[in-house]
Amino acid sequence: MSVVVLDFGSQYTQLIARRLRELRAFSVIVRGTAPWEDILAHRPQALVLSGSPASVVAPDAPRPDPRVFASALPILGICYGMHLLALAGGGRVVPGRAHEYGRAALVHGGTGLFAGLPQPLPVWTSHGDAVADPPPGWEVLGSTAECPIAALASPDGRRVGLQFHPEVAHTPHGKEVLGRFLDRAGVDRTWTPENVAERLVVEVRDRAQGGRVLLAASGGVDSSVLALLLVRAGVDHKAVFVDHGLLREGERDEVVAALRGLGVCLHVVDASDRFLRALRGIRDPEEKRRAIGATFIAVFREKAAELGPFRFLAQGTLYPDVIESGEGAGAAKIKSHHNVGGLPAELGFELLEPLRLLFKDEVREVGRVLGLPDSIRLRHPFPGPGLAVRVLGEVTPEALAILRRADHEFVSALREEGLYGEVWQALAVLLPVRTVGVTGDGRRYGHVVALRAVTSADGMTADWARLPPEFLDRVAARITRRVPAVGRVVYDITGKPPATIEWE
C-alpha cells in the first residue's frame, strides 16, 4: 500500500515523497501522465498531484489519466495539482492577476487540515495561475493577500487543493497539514526503519531462494547495508571489493576490516594499475566514467567467473540513483556512473536491488536497525569513479597522491572539530591549474585545491555548508603546510541546483 505522487515536473516532487515517508507513509513517484494501470500497480491508498512549471490553462499542459479523478481515492493537489483538481471538478482556473512567489500568510478558517494551526499561517508559494471559481459544492479553506482561493476541499473532505507548498521547510507547519491529509485518507503509517528492515530481510531471502548472490561492495553505506542484509537473510553470497586505485587514504583497509567483521564473505581485487592505464591521457569526465565502467566490468567479470557460478547480482542502488539515471518520472539522465541496470546486461545475472526505493537517510536508519557500525553507516557518500572525478583533467599517480592527502586533511579536520556529522558530504577537488604563491623568500607555482561541503537530506538538492571561517582558515593552512604541492585552497559556495555536488 502506498501514496502515489504524480510528478508533473515540479522541483519539489522528491521532497513531497520524502515528507510523506517522514510521516511514516510509504510513497512512490510516478509520471504524472502515466496510465491508470501503472498507478494501480503501486496499490495506492491516496494520490498526490505535484506542482509543475507548466500552466494548466495551456493547451499542451500535462494532464493525468481521467480515471484518476473518476476513482474513489483521496487526492491532495499541490499548486498545479490544485488547479487540476479544480478543473476536474468543474471549477475555473485563470492566469493569476499577480504572480505570487515566496513567503505568504494564509488566512484560514481553523477547520479541517488547519484546525489549531497559527492564524495566519506562514506558507511558501510559487505560482502564476489561480483558481477563480471553486468546483460546485467545494469549500474554500483559506486565502492569501494575492490569492483569494489558496486552499479548498471537496464536500466530503477527501480531496484537497493547496496553492502553497506544504512540503518545503519554509512552510513551518507543512508536515502537520500533510499528516492530517494522510489521517483523513486513512493511509497506513507503518513506514518505520524497523518494519522496513524486517521487510527487506524477508524480501532478500524470498527472492534469492537458494540462489548464489554476487555483490559489488564499495565500502559505502549502500552496499554495506546490502551486504549485511545478505548476511542476515542467510543468503549464500560473495562480495567483491575492487580496489581501482582511486580510493581515499586508508579506505581499503577500513572497508575490508569492517565488512569482514560483519560476517560478509569479502574478496578483494587490486586492479589499481589496470585502471590507471585505462585512464591514461583522458581528460573528459564522461570518457573517464566510460573507461572506469568498462574496466570495472572486465575486472568484475573475471572475478565472478573465478568465484561462480552465481544467479544474482546485488547492487546498492537507491531511489535518487534511479531518478538521476533517467528512470524516474520525467527525469533527465544527470549521472552516467550509477549502476542502475548496467551491470546485469553485461554479466548476464538476475538483478537484486532491495534498496531501490529508499533514500540515503532511510538506508542509514535501516543500517542502524541491522547493527551496522556508525563508522560505515554515517560515512559521507563517495562516487563510484572515486577520486577520478575529483581530479579535473588527466588522472595521474601524482595528481591522485596530492588530492588524496588534501582530502584526508580536510575530512580529518572536520572529524576532529565535530563538524563531520553536520554536513552531508565533504570533499576536495584538484583543479587543472597552478597559481603563483610565496614560500619563504621565493615565488613558486602550486596546485589549487577546492574544498566542498554541502548539507542535504538525500542528495537530490543541496546547499553549501556554512562552515566557520576560522575552521576554513585552519584547514587551508593545514593543507598547504602538509601537502607542499598545494599552493592555494578555495571553498565552493554553490548549491545544487544549479551545480551538482561533485565537480565532474
Give an overview in words.
The chain has helices at residues 13-22, 36-40, 67-70, 80-88, 174-185, 193-208, 221-232, 251-261, 272-279, 285-307, 319-324, 342-347, 360-370, 374-377, 397-416, 469-482; strands at residues 2-7, 27-31, 44-49, 75-78, 92-108, 121-133, 139-143, 151-153, 159-162, 213-217, 237-243, 266-270, 312-314, 350-352, 425-439, 442-455, 463-464, 486-491. With 504 residues, it is an alpha/beta fold. It folds into three domains: 2-185, Rossmann fold (3-Layer(aba) Sandwich); 193-377, Rossmann fold, CATH 3.40.50.620; 396-491, GMP Synthetase, Chain A, domain 3. The protein has a nine-stranded mixed beta sheet with strand order 2-1-3-4-9-8-7-5-6, sandwiched between helices. A five-stranded parallel beta sheet has the order 12-11-10-13-14, sandwiched between helices. Strands 15, 16, 17 and 18 form a four-stranded mixed beta sheet that branches.
